[in-house]
Specification:
It is built from 6 helices and 5 strands; from the N terminus they run βααβαβααββα. By secondary structure, it is α/β, with parallel strands linked by helices. Bound molecules: ligand CA2. The site of ligand CA2 has 15 residues, from loops.
Length: 155
Protein backbone atom coordinates (compact mmCIF):
# COMPACT_ATOMS: atom_id res chain seq x y z
CA UNK A 1 0.00 0.00 0.00
CA UNK A 2 1.37 3.47 -0.83
CA UNK A 3 2.07 6.06 1.92
CA UNK A 4 -1.16 7.76 0.97
CA UNK A 5 -3.74 5.01 0.40
CA UNK A 6 -6.93 5.68 -1.51
CA UNK A 7 -10.24 4.99 0.21
CA UNK A 8 -13.54 5.00 -1.66
CA UNK A 9 -16.61 5.88 0.45
CA UNK A 10 -19.73 5.19 -1.61
CA UNK A 11 -23.29 6.03 -0.64
CA UNK A 12 -26.52 4.73 -2.09
CA UNK A 13 -29.95 6.20 -2.75
CA UNK A 14 -31.60 8.97 -0.72
CA UNK A 15 -28.58 9.64 1.44
CA UNK A 16 -28.36 13.04 -0.28
CA UNK A 17 -31.39 13.90 1.92
CA UNK A 18 -29.44 13.38 5.11
CA UNK A 19 -30.13 16.15 7.62
CA UNK A 20 -33.21 17.32 5.72
CA UNK A 21 -35.74 14.50 6.36
CA UNK A 22 -36.36 11.90 9.08
CA UNK A 23 -33.90 13.42 11.61
CA UNK A 24 -35.37 11.11 14.28
CA UNK A 25 -33.95 8.15 12.34
CA UNK A 26 -30.87 9.53 10.60
CA UNK A 27 -29.91 12.58 12.66
CA UNK A 28 -29.34 16.21 11.69
CA UNK A 29 -25.94 16.06 10.05
CA UNK A 30 -25.77 16.39 6.28
CA UNK A 31 -23.85 14.11 3.93
CA UNK A 32 -21.27 16.91 3.59
CA UNK A 33 -20.78 16.74 7.38
CA UNK A 34 -20.33 12.97 7.11
CA UNK A 35 -17.79 13.46 4.32
CA UNK A 36 -15.81 15.88 6.53
CA UNK A 37 -15.81 13.27 9.33
CA UNK A 38 -14.50 10.63 6.92
CA UNK A 39 -11.75 12.90 5.67
CA UNK A 40 -10.70 13.67 9.23
CA UNK A 41 -10.76 10.00 10.21
CA UNK A 42 -8.74 9.05 7.11
CA UNK A 43 -5.76 11.24 8.01
CA UNK A 44 -3.24 11.11 5.15
CA UNK A 45 -5.34 8.78 3.03
CA UNK A 46 -7.13 10.17 -0.01
CA UNK A 47 -10.90 9.88 0.35
CA UNK A 48 -13.10 9.60 -2.74
CA UNK A 49 -16.58 10.29 -1.33
CA UNK A 50 -19.65 9.92 -3.57
CA UNK A 51 -23.42 9.43 -3.44
CA UNK A 52 -25.82 8.28 -6.12
CA UNK A 53 -29.52 7.49 -6.42
CA UNK A 54 -28.84 5.11 -9.34
CA UNK A 55 -28.01 1.41 -8.98
CA UNK A 56 -25.98 1.24 -12.21
CA UNK A 57 -23.88 4.23 -11.24
CA UNK A 58 -23.13 2.68 -7.85
CA UNK A 59 -22.03 -0.50 -9.63
CA UNK A 60 -19.83 1.51 -12.03
CA UNK A 61 -18.13 3.10 -9.02
CA UNK A 62 -17.59 -0.28 -7.34
CA UNK A 63 -15.92 -1.48 -10.56
CA UNK A 64 -13.82 1.70 -10.66
CA UNK A 65 -12.74 1.13 -7.05
CA UNK A 66 -11.29 -2.24 -8.08
CA UNK A 67 -8.54 -0.48 -10.03
CA UNK A 68 -8.09 2.67 -7.97
CA UNK A 69 -8.84 2.05 -4.29
CA UNK A 70 -7.03 0.28 -1.47
CA UNK A 71 -10.30 -0.17 0.46
CA UNK A 72 -14.01 0.56 0.17
CA UNK A 73 -16.55 1.80 2.71
CA UNK A 74 -20.06 1.29 1.39
CA UNK A 75 -23.41 2.48 2.69
CA UNK A 76 -25.58 0.80 0.05
CA UNK A 77 -28.76 2.25 1.64
CA UNK A 78 -31.86 0.48 0.24
CA UNK A 79 -29.85 -1.39 -2.42
CA UNK A 80 -28.14 -3.40 0.31
CA UNK A 81 -31.48 -5.12 0.92
CA UNK A 82 -32.36 -5.72 -2.72
CA UNK A 83 -29.49 -5.70 -5.20
CA UNK A 84 -27.95 -8.95 -6.40
CA UNK A 85 -26.28 -6.88 -9.14
CA UNK A 86 -24.46 -4.84 -6.50
CA UNK A 87 -23.43 -8.06 -4.74
CA UNK A 88 -22.07 -9.44 -8.03
CA UNK A 89 -19.99 -6.28 -8.54
CA UNK A 90 -18.66 -6.44 -4.98
CA UNK A 91 -17.70 -10.09 -5.45
CA UNK A 92 -15.17 -9.05 -8.12
CA UNK A 93 -13.22 -6.90 -5.63
CA UNK A 94 -10.10 -8.07 -3.84
CA UNK A 95 -9.77 -4.95 -1.66
CA UNK A 96 -11.42 -4.93 1.79
CA UNK A 97 -15.05 -3.78 1.87
CA UNK A 98 -16.62 -2.40 5.05
CA UNK A 99 -20.40 -2.07 5.07
CA UNK A 100 -21.65 0.98 6.94
CA UNK A 101 -25.07 2.14 8.17
CA UNK A 102 -26.18 5.14 10.18
CA UNK A 103 -29.05 3.25 11.78
CA UNK A 104 -29.06 -0.34 13.01
CA UNK A 105 -31.04 -2.20 10.33
CA UNK A 106 -31.24 -5.32 12.55
CA UNK A 107 -33.34 -3.34 15.03
CA UNK A 108 -35.72 -2.06 12.34
CA UNK A 109 -38.33 -3.58 9.98
CA UNK A 110 -37.85 -7.20 8.89
CA UNK A 111 -37.10 -6.28 5.29
CA UNK A 112 -33.99 -4.43 6.48
CA UNK A 113 -32.59 -7.50 8.24
CA UNK A 114 -31.22 -9.06 5.06
CA UNK A 115 -28.16 -7.43 3.50
CA UNK A 116 -26.66 -8.81 0.30
CA UNK A 117 -23.58 -6.68 0.96
CA UNK A 118 -22.86 -8.37 4.28
CA UNK A 119 -22.11 -11.60 2.39
CA UNK A 120 -18.94 -10.06 0.96
CA UNK A 121 -18.07 -7.38 3.52
CA UNK A 122 -15.10 -7.87 5.83
CA UNK A 123 -17.32 -6.37 8.52
CA UNK A 124 -20.31 -4.16 9.20
CA UNK A 125 -20.55 -0.96 11.27
CA UNK A 126 -24.10 0.14 12.01
CA UNK A 127 -26.21 2.03 14.47
CA UNK A 128 -23.83 4.79 15.54
CA UNK A 129 -25.09 7.57 13.29
CA UNK A 130 -22.30 9.50 11.53
CA UNK A 131 -19.79 7.87 13.89
CA UNK A 132 -20.43 4.61 12.00
CA UNK A 133 -18.61 6.15 9.05
CA UNK A 134 -15.57 7.16 11.11
CA UNK A 135 -15.33 3.65 12.58
CA UNK A 136 -15.78 2.12 9.13
CA UNK A 137 -13.02 4.33 7.68
CA UNK A 138 -10.63 3.29 10.46
CA UNK A 139 -11.49 -0.38 9.95
CA UNK A 140 -11.12 -0.21 6.16
CA UNK A 141 -7.74 1.53 6.31
CA UNK A 142 -6.54 -0.87 9.01
CA UNK A 143 -7.51 -3.85 6.87
CA UNK A 144 -5.85 -2.35 3.79
CA UNK A 145 -2.65 -1.82 5.76
CA UNK A 146 -2.69 -5.39 7.09
CA UNK A 147 -3.30 -6.69 3.59
CA UNK A 148 -0.33 -4.78 2.16
CA UNK A 149 1.93 -6.01 5.02
CA UNK A 150 0.93 -9.58 4.29
CA UNK A 151 1.58 -9.05 0.57
CA UNK A 152 5.05 -7.56 1.34
CA UNK A 153 5.95 -10.63 3.40
CA UNK A 154 4.99 -13.03 0.62
CA UNK A 155 7.58 -11.67 -1.89
O1 LIG B 1 -28.99 3.32 8.25
C1 LIG B 1 -28.54 3.40 7.11
O2 LIG B 1 -27.49 3.99 6.84
C2 LIG B 1 -29.35 2.81 5.95
O3 LIG B 1 -28.43 2.30 5.01
C3 LIG B 1 -30.14 3.96 5.37
C4 LIG B 1 -31.06 3.51 4.24
C5 LIG B 1 -31.93 2.35 4.68
O4 LIG B 1 -32.69 1.87 3.59
C6 LIG B 1 -31.12 1.20 5.25
O5 LIG B 1 -32.01 0.21 5.73
C7 LIG B 1 -30.25 1.68 6.40
C8 LIG B 1 -31.97 4.66 3.82
C9 LIG B 1 -31.21 5.86 3.33
C10 LIG B 1 -32.18 6.97 3.21
O6 LIG B 1 -31.58 8.13 3.69
C11 LIG B 1 -32.39 9.13 4.09
C12 LIG B 1 -31.79 10.14 4.78
C13 LIG B 1 -32.54 11.18 5.23
C14 LIG B 1 -33.88 11.23 4.97
C15 LIG B 1 -34.48 10.22 4.26
C16 LIG B 1 -33.73 9.16 3.80
Amino acid sequence: MPDSPVLYVLNGPNLNLLGQREPEVYGRETLADVQARCERAAGKATVVFRQTNHEGELIDWVQEAAGKADALVLNPAGYGHTSVALLDALRTLTIPVVECHLSNPAARERFRHRSYVSAVAAGVVSGFGPLSYELAVQAALGLAQERSRTADRSV
